[in-house]
């Protein structure tokens, strides 16, 4: 009788192990896939950030250039206005 019980337990455990082995995906595999997706998204966001920072820097350079030109024009106009008033 003991053998019958142990055989039933062994068969039951084998059946459970076999049925669950292929039915559910491995957590490491799923986690690895999710990590890959997250890393790809982070790379994309980093690239977008880098491009945006370059665009901002270029815009600031243009702004500074335009401000210098405006200041030069204003100084020139003030000089001309002063000359006309005298």
Key structural traits:
86 residues, single chain, 2 helices, mainly alpha, 92% helix
Rg (CA only):
37 Å
Shape: rod-shaped
Q: Could you name the ranges where pLDDT drops below 50 across 5 or more consecutive residues? A: 15-20
Strand content: under 5%
Region (Disordered): 1-32
Biased composition (Basic and acidic residues): 1-11
Write up what this structure looks like.
This protein is an all-alpha fold and 86 residues long. It contains two helices and no strands. It is rod-shaped and about 90 Å long. The termini are far apart. Residues 1-32 are annotated as: Disordered. Residues 1-11 have a biased composition (Basic and acidic residues).
Please give the structural blueprint:
Blueprint: H1 2-21, H2 27-85
Task: Describe the structure concisely.
It contains two helices and no strands.
């Amino acid at each position: 009788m003991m053998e019958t019980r142990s055989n039933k337990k062994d068969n039951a455990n084998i059946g459970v192990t076999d049925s669950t082995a292929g039915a559910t995906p491995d957590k490491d595999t799923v986690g690895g896939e999710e990590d890959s997706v997250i890393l790809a998204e982070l790379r994309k966001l980093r690239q977008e950030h880098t491009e945006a920072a370059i665009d901002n820097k270029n815009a600031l350079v243009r702004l500074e250039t335009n401000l210098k030109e405006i200041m030069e024009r204003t100084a020139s106009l003030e000089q001309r206005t002063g000359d006309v008033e005298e």
